[in-house]
Specification:
The protein is mainly α and 193 residues long. 75% of the residues lie in helices and 0% in strands.
């Protein structure tokens, strides 16, 4: 892991555990095993680190979305991509998902709150648009409420992930729990073509 990533992972863990305001640059440096000048080489200050950590989380999410969710995939492959992306984050970037889950409870600058809200709204719009397209193609019942369906799919994944991140539920079998969600969707929400 390179130094910048080590700083990201450390900051994400500490911000998740103690909150943004309670964590000092010194604490980040000590935990990451670096000096302050090294941190300041990469980030102007703690606020800049926070901004870039959020951007890095978005970047990684976009990278995996591009890799696993695309128009050329079969419908259920794209639906499963939601599960796959969360599994990857839980395995490889757990501190980032903890940080992202708890970000809304932290005292952070208003511009970052707005940025996260806009991001979430755009993600939901994207997914709803995809579900509407697939409803028109016959994969989803014509009378299904796409708003409710998208909220149920995204919300159920987030709920299972939050239970795991916040409370340690399903620690050993988080992948199984997420796969069970997908099976339930596949068997009860969608029509085979």
């Amino acid at each position: 892991m390179n130094t910048k990533d080590k700083i990201f992972f450390t900051a994400a863990e500490l911000f998740s555990k103690y909150g943004f305001d309670a964590v000092s640059v010194r604490q980040i440096c000590e935990t990451a095993g670096i000096t302050k000048p090294v941190l300041y080489y990469y980030f102007k200050d703690k606020e800049t680190l926070l901004h870039e950590l959020i951007e890095e989380t978005f970047r990684l999410s976009d990278e995996y979305k591009q890799r696993y969710f695309n128009e050329e995939n079969k419908f259920l492959e794209n639906i499963y991509a939601i599960i796959r992306i969360y599994k990857i984050f839980l395995k490889k970037y757990r501190p980032f998902i903890q940080f992202s889950t708890l970000l809304n409870t932290m005292n952070i600058p208003d511009d970052l709150v707005k940025k996260k809200i806009v991001r979430a709204e755009n993600e939901i719009k994207f997914f709803k648009k995809y579900l509407e397209l697939k409803q028109n193609e016959g994969y989803i019942h014509q009378d299904a409420d796409i708003d409710a369906l998208s909220n149920m799919i995204i919300g159920s994944v987030l709920f299972v992930v939050m239970q795991n991140v916040l409370f340690g539920f399903y620690k050993r079998n988080i992948n199984k729990k997420l796969d069970e969600l997908f099976e339930m969707w596949k068997n009860n929400l969608f029509m085979e073509k």
